[in-house]
Amino acid sequence: MLAVDLPxxxxxxxxxxxxxxxxxxxxxxxxxxVLRALKFRLAEMNLNxxxxxxxxxxxxxxxxxxxxxxxxxxxxxxQSLEKPYLDFMQSLQQYINRRLFMGLFSYECHFAHxxxxxxxxxxxxxxxxxxxxxxxxxxxxxDGWDAELGGxxxxxxxxxxxxxxxRVTPSFGTLVTFLSDEFPHEVLPALRSRYSIAGWFRVxxxxxxxxxxxx
Length: 215
Fold this sequence. Notes:
Blueprint: H1 10-21, E1 23-26, H2 32-44, E2 51-52, E3 71-74, H3 83-100, E4 106-114, E5 120-123, E6 133-140, E7 153-157, E8 160-168, E9 175-179, E10 185-187, E11 194-202
Antiparallel strand pairs: 1-9, 2-3, 3-4, 4-11, 5-10, 6-9, 6-11, 7-8, 7-10
C-alpha cells in the first residue's frame, strides 16, 4: 500500500512547537484573504492613525523613546479589514485551549509601525505571577524584505537572557508565537519602514466582578 502524505494542520504545528520548545515560527499559516485584508487596511491608513507606543500598564504606563520608538494602532473587530485576522486568532485560541489546556481567555493586538532607525530594546512581555499575558504573537507584513535591511526580532534564551536563541527576519506572512513569560526579545533598527501586528493571548484574572483591563 502506498503511503499518503496527509496535510499538516498549521495549528497543530504551532501547538507542537509550543509544547516542545515554547516558541513557534510559521511562514504559511495565515490565510491569503486575511493577509490581503491587512495589506488593504495598512494602505488606507496614515501616520496620524498611529500613536506613540508606551511601556507599562494603567497608572504605570509611560512613553520612553530610549526603550521603544514604534507607533501603534489597536485592532478592532468592528473594523471590517481587521476583523478577519481577529477571527483567525480566535480560532487559534480555541485550538490551543483544546490541545494544550492553556485557558486562553481573550486576545488583543495592535499594528506596530517602525520607521527607519526605530527599535524596541530587550524586554519581557510578561513576568511570572505579575500579568495575565501568557502567549505572544507577532505577524510580519513587509513585502520583499531582505535580511540586509535589518529590523529582525531577536529572541534570547529563557535561562540566559544574554544568550541569543534566534533571529527572525520580518518577512511578509511570518508568524511568531511564544510563551510571554519565557523569552526576552528585542526589535533591531531597520533601513526601511516596517510593519507588524503584535498580540497577546490572556488568561482571565478578573476578581470580585472587576474585569481585568485588556490593555
